[in-house]
Amino acid sequence: NAGVMQNPRHLVRRRGQEARLRCSPMKGHSHVYWYRQLPEEGLKFMVYLQKENIIDESGMPKERFSAEFPKEGPSILRIQQVVRGDSAAYFCASSSGTGTSGEQFFGPGTRLTVL
Amino acid sequence: GQQVMQIPQYQHVQEGEDFTTYCNSSTTLSNIQWYKQRPGGHPVFLIQLVKSGEVKKQKRLTFQFGEAKKNSSLHITATQTTDVGTYFCAYNQGGKLIFGQGTELSVKP
User: Which residue of A has its CA nearest to B3?
Assistant: First the structure.
């Protein structure tokens, strides 16, 4: 039973380019969460999605960031016109059930570097 | 929104010594979770506590949830080099996890 999968594991972009991060949740999980970890900092919630729905996007920056979890395929976190401050590790997590309790299973993360 | 404060930020111990990290909130928490993140790795769930005064043990790890459900602690007895990493407390707020700042543990052999 494969765990949460994320790709790419490492991504390098130049300022102004777009970054697309993908996440496939664990089999049977319908709740997906994205977190950002800046260097030497803790984990910050970004967005919570279920299939085709955004449940909570209170942690998403107002501009340039978007997320989706389509009916088919992985969840995508998209960052447009990246800036150096976007350099961070982006972790996806998934859970089963209602999502309001219980553990979340984290993927290996995508390390984004903006030059 | 609610925040959890975690101390200390860093802890350096000699192998065999004990280690404790603390998590505090100004408001009552419905639950508290603990995660471990190895250097260069991703967070891994350790445990969830939901009851007032709850104590759970996993081998050398002891987790406590305060009577008022405003604080929690993780205690490791006789640390080993495999315990190295950052330990985060977190609580689940409507699905999203709110993390403490983490305590980075280093163990000197």
Answer: A44
